[in-house]
Every structure is written in C-alpha cells, then in structure tokens.
Amino acid sequence: MKTSAWVLYRAGADGLALDAPGRLRLEEISLPELGEEDVLAEPLCGSWEANMTHALERSPVDIVAARGEDRIVLGNSGLLRVLRTGPAVTGLREGDVCFLASCGKADRRGYVEQVHAYDSPGTMGMLAKRTVVPARVLAPLPPGTRHDLRRWAACARYWTAWSNWRLAYGTWRLEALEDEVPYVLGWGGGVSLAQCELARLKDGARAAMAASSPGRLALLESKGIHAIDRSAFRDLQYDEERFHTDTTYREAYRAAEQRFLSIVDQFTQGQGASIVIDNIGTPVHRASLKALARGGVLTTCGWKHGMTMKYYRAIACIKRQQYIHTHAANPREVDSIVAFQERHGWLPEVGTVTPWEHIGELSTAYATGKVDGYFPVFEVNAA
Ligand SMILES: NC(=O)c1ccc[n+]([C@@H]2O[C@H](COP(=O)([O-])OP(=O)(O)OC[C@H]3O[C@@H](n4cnc5c(N)ncnc54)[C@H](OP(=O)(O)O)[C@@H]3O)[C@@H](O)[C@H]2O)c1
C-alpha cells in the first residue's frame, strides 16, 4: 500500500550538502506489511515536538543515519484512528481513536530508552496519511472524553512532565518540612509549563516561569503561574569560554544574571527556588544553580541548548541539592495520568491547527521561534 508522507532523509541522501540541515519532503512512500502485532492507522492530528526539530537540524546527531536508514517518517505525539489490526492484536478495533505513546524501546522497568518515530529504528510516526505501528505503542482515549481532541493530540509533553515532576517533587518532599510549600521555577517550554501547572494543581506549589513573548506571558498568568519576562535579562546566555575571554560579554552576562536572581529573590521571598525545572541546558545552567535554595532540586528531561553541565559536587553536597534526570513517561504511568487529565482538565492550550499541506512551513516556523504558543498542532486526516 502506498501513502503520502512528509519524510526526512539522512544527511547527504537528498542532494543537499552533507552539513546542511534537513528539510521535510512530501512524497509517496510504501507502507510496510502489517505484522502480527501491528496496526494500520490513520493519524488524525499531531503535535510538533522539539525532538522533530532536533532531527531536522541533525543536532545533536543525524538521527536518520543513526537509525541506519535513508529516510524516515517522524511524529511521536498525536492521535490516530485504527483502520486494521494484525491477527495477534487484542483490545483494539477498527475506528478506535488512540494516543501514540512514544515508547520505541523500553528497559526492564518499562522506561523509555528509544522514542518511537524518533531514534527507534524502523519506526514510523504521525507525518503520513496512513501509518503502521506496533499495537503496544497505542493507548486508548478516555471514552466519552469532555475535552477537545486537539488538546489530547498535544499532550505527550504533559506525560513527560508528570514523570519528571513525580520524581522531582518526591525527592524535594523527602527532606522538606511537613508544612513547607515549594517555590517552583521553570525555564521556557511546553514541558516546563505542564510541570508548573501540575505543581500548582496537584501539590499546591507556588510556580513562576520565564517566557519571552506577550502571548506566552499572558498564558502563564491566566494559569496562575507568575510570569517572568525573559526579555528583561536577554544577555543571560552562559558561554564558559567567552566568560573567561571576553570582558564585554562577561559584564553583560553578569548584569543579566543579577537581574534574573533578584526576580527569583522577590518571587521566593529570599528563600531561593525549591525546584528549578531546566530543560534548556548550558546557557541557563549556572543561573539555575544560583537560583536554587538549600535542599533544592534541579530537575531536567531536556537539553534544548546544550547537554554539558558543570557543577561543584562539594557545594551540591553541603547545600543538600539534588539533580533529577528523566525521559518520557513510562507506559505504566499513562492510565493514571490520563485519568487525572480528564478529571482536572490538565491539558495543553492549542491555537490554530496547521493543515497537512503546510507542515513543511510549520517545521520552519518552529525552528525559527515563530510559533507563539507552546503546542503547535497539525492535521493529517479529519477527525
Ligand atoms: N525527555 C523527553 O521525553 C522530552 C519530552 C519533550 C521535550 N523534551 C526536550 O525538552 C526540551 C524543551 O522542550 P519543550 O518542548 O518543553 O520546549 P519548547 O516548547 O520547544 O520551548 C523551549 C522554550 O525555551 C525558551 N528558550 C529558548 N532558548 C532559551 C535560552 N537560551 N534561555 C532560556 N530560555 C530559552 C523559549 O521560550 P521563551 O522565549 O518564551 O522563553 C523556547 O520556546 C527540548 O530539548 C526537548 O527535546 C524532552
């Protein structure tokens, strides 16, 4: 069977220069045979995710080459409708609408090692009119849900947020006083937003988050999250080499860091942040550590702008600070997450939906920071 898909080639395989960033191309592809435990599905709508941009930018690696393939179909978050099931599939029928859960390969506890339709070889995602996926990566929508399907389509980062928050908050709680209420501070991004919301909703935390556009700042405030305007400290972009060699840069950085820390000081009434959510990485890591209270937790599941972090073990020990690292949610967590979402409406806010034909343009807009909300949704087939 043939279908139309937005594909990404490995570097050098699409006629572009080896070091050029990848581009999505709309092409006809052949679908693989339906295996015993596979499902033929039609993607309905999906959410553009940061890892799709990492794949296009081939940063930190050329994911297509790493999978040993020439071209792949990305898209690890969204909703699909079941069209046909392989003979060994149970519990799914034609017409069922399901989430695509991102677990490509898991460890013995069920935690994700490779992401479906990203770094897991041979997997196919949402960017195709028809797709073939193993039944185990599908999870059913809550029957009769009261929430808009487009919001559910974008909720994979809420699941990641849940898994990370569970560990970060649990760790902080171990040493906190019984009546202590945490101050949570998040850097930008959809996962961070989901965590700040969850921190308030589930655990009564006071949350603040940085953002740089008026739309995002207003969204944060509307959710009861104290909005920190990042444009007030634009020069907070740490670069160790420049810090040691470029005086003008160092002074600008220090002034920006000072502005940021005084905002944190005000928000936390001088105590420092109990939990800092940092999915950005190197440019903000130094400031994240300075913002952290004694007994604080620095938590991450992302490395948008840099994977390398330097910290002083002695200081972390003396201040009893903990560092949490997680990846996507465990499929075993999904049922309780979805039940919580249905009950409390803990779901992303979704704006205009990008039509199928314009997905290539969406990928460019996202890469150049021209998407205003946090959860850009695209349509593949009508729901
Ligand atoms: N492990 C997992 O399962 C998992 C799941 C999802 C995402 N992730 C990773 O987590 C990271 C964040 O993803 P996301 O989807 O939450 O974020 P996102 O929606 O892509 O947004 C990141 C935001 O961070 C802010 N930002 C950008 N550069 C910055 C800088 N230098 N300093 C401070 N803030 C900056 C920008 O917002 P403002 O300009 O408004 O501040 C930007 O929109 C990505 O690397 C992604 O791959 C991991």
Task: Please outline what is shown here.
By secondary structure, the protein is of the alpha/beta class. Helix content is 32%, strand content 23%. It folds into two domains: 2-155 and 348-379, Alpha-Beta Complex (Quinone Oxidoreductase, Chain A, domain 1), CATH 3.90.180.10; 157-325, NAD(P)-binding Rossmann-like Domain (Rossmann fold), CATH 3.40.50.720.
Note the main attributes of this structure:
383 residues; alpha/beta; Quinone Oxidoreductase, Chain A, domain 1; Rossmann fold; 2 domains; 6-stranded antiparallel β-sheet; 6-stranded parallel β-sheet; 12 helices; 23% strand; binds NADP nicotinamide-adenine-dinucleotide phosphate
Explain the overall architecture.
- There is one protein chain.
- The protein has 383 residues and is α/β, with parallel strands linked by helices.
- Helix 6 links the parallel strand 12 (206-211) and strand 13 (226-229).
- The longest helix is centred in the C-terminal third of the chain and has 21 residues, at 247-267.
- Helix 4 crosses helix 5 (190-203).
- The chain has helices at residues 50-57, 63-66, 149-153, 156-175, 190-203, 214-222, 240-245, 247-267, 282-291, 313-318, 334-344, 359-367; strands at residues 2-9, 25-30, 38-47, 71-72, 78-85, 97-100, 103-106, 112-115, 131-134, 138-140, 183-186, 206-211, 226-229, 273-277, 292-300, 322-325, 377-379.
- Helices cover 32% and strands 23% of the residues.
- The strands form four sheets. Strands 3, 5, 6, 9, 10 and 17 form a six-stranded antiparallel β-sheet that branches. A six-stranded parallel β-sheet has the order 13-12-11-14-15-16, sandwiched between helices. The chain has a three-stranded antiparallel β-sheet with strand order 2-1-4, with no helix packed on it.
- The mean pLDDT is 96.
- Bound molecules: NADP nicotinamide-adenine-dinucleotide phosphate.
- NADP nicotinamide-adenine-dinucleotide phosphate (NAP) binds at residues 50-51, 54, 157, 160, 187-192, 210-213, 216, 230, 237, 279-280, 283-284, 301-305, 327-328, 374.
